[in-house]
Every structure is written in C-alpha cells, then in structure tokens.
Amino acid sequence: MSVLDEPLRFDLALREGACPAMVTLVGAGPGDPDLLTVRAARAIATAELVLFDALVGAGVIALLPKTAHLIDVGKRSGCHKLSQDGIIDLMIRLAKSGRRVLRLKGGDPFIFGRGGEEAQALAHAGVPFEVVPGISAAQGAAAAAGIPLTHRDHAASVTYVTGHGKARAGGPPSLDLDWPRLARPQQTLVVYMGVETLPVLCTQLVAHGLEATTPAATIERATCPDMRVTTGTVETLPHLARVHGVKAPALVIVGEVVSLQPQLARAMARSAALRP
User: Fold this and answer.
1) Which CATH superfamily is domain 2-135 in?
2) From 70, 106, 172, 272, which residue has the greatest number of CB atoms within 10 Å?
3) Looking at the predicted structure, is the pLDDT value of residue 1 above 60?
4) Which strands, in side-by-side order, build the sheet including 69-72?
C-alpha cells in the first residue's frame, strides 16, 4: 500500500483518452472499522485508488488492499493539502483517465462531509458515480457515549448544525445560525466542528432562551479506543472543555438527553465486560 501525501504528484501518471471510470463516494463511519456497512467494506476491500480524508479512522485505512494507491487529501486545521476545489478537480481528472476512484470520507458523505458538492461536480463533469452511506459521526458518538439522540421524555427532534465559524479580526469567530430555533426545548442539538466556537455557541443559546442548566457534552474521537466524553451544562461546558483540553475531532451535544449519559455509560461499561 503506497500513500501519496503530495496529491498533485499523481498527475504525472494520468492516462489520456480513457473512458471515465466510476467514482465511489464511501462513508467510512465515525472511526471504528466494525461500524462500516457491508457495502462500504466490500468497496474498501477491492479499492485500487483511494482519496481519503483526515477523519477516516486508522482501522478503516488498515483494511485497504496492500496494492491500493492512497492519496491523502485530508483538510486539517491550518493544514490543507488541497482545497476542496482541488480535491474535486483531482478526482475528476483521475476518473477521466480511466481509473476507478474510491473517495473515502469520515461519517456519512452527505452529512457535513461535502459529499453533495463532490457528487454535483461529478454529475456536471459526466463522470459516473455512486454513493455508499455511512453511520454518521453524530450517530456513532451518541451511541458510543450513551446519549440517545431522541427520547420520548426528553427530545422529540434532533437538529444537526455546523459550528465552524467565520473568522473576525480581534475577536472570537462568529456563527450565523437560527438561534431562536436552536434554543427551543424538547430537542437535541448536535454541533459538528464546534470546539473552537463552543463559548459563542453556548452564550447565544442562553441569550435566546435556552436554560443555562441544560445538559451538554463534548465527545472526542467518537467510537475510537481513546474516545473521551466531557459532560456539563450549557453554562459550564466551555470552561470544562478548556480545563480538560478538548480538541477536534469532537462533537457537541446539547439537550436533556445528555442527562442520561452517566447511567447509560456505566451500564454499557458493565455490559462490555461480559462480552466473550
């Protein structure tokens, strides 16, 4: 298995005049390779050329064939190997050169994975593609941490938003969200990419009517062996996250369902000890 961390070097080997080959957009799930779908596992087992993101779990990467060529296009904070437009351009040119491409993305491609943009570009370019859904980061994190996303006594709906803010000179990042809707009771709020803007998020939720005592949690490296859960309230979570050094990749979950986490997590840990 060869890994190219300089993606544009692969351009030198492009074959001209070939018919466009299939691009398979695969959701690699939240990290644990046991959570791959059967269809995703089949696609991974037969991959020839793989463009993979930073959030794809190491255990998933280990399942790729030793003969596969891997291209790391992961976008990490402050370090982008390729822009999103660059990733799309490379993917299209590789497919048009006749190479089958496995586009491996963390979680589900169509939930904050920019898979919709990539699928749209492939369709526009006339490149055949298929989409293999994956267990989302929110689903994986909630299940692994012991936080039901919905519950008849606590939450009748669940909302996913991105906490990736816009930079502002001399101040914290800004978030342009529908705060009155997000602050409603009886729902669960899941925030992707929300560690950096957590203080802004919590301040705005309280300012728009959410009780400051509403339970809230961060879940780092969901479903992986080093997963870590930090629980508190909307009022205390920013301080706790700072004290405990919470870092991305992490999800933020806000809502009364978080109050169930201690009980369910303890029971899950006891149950895990009984597994053969």
Assistant:
1) Tetrapyrrole methylase, N-terminal domain (3.40.1010.10)
2) 106
3) no
4) 2-4, 69-72, 49-52, 101-105, 23-27, 129-132
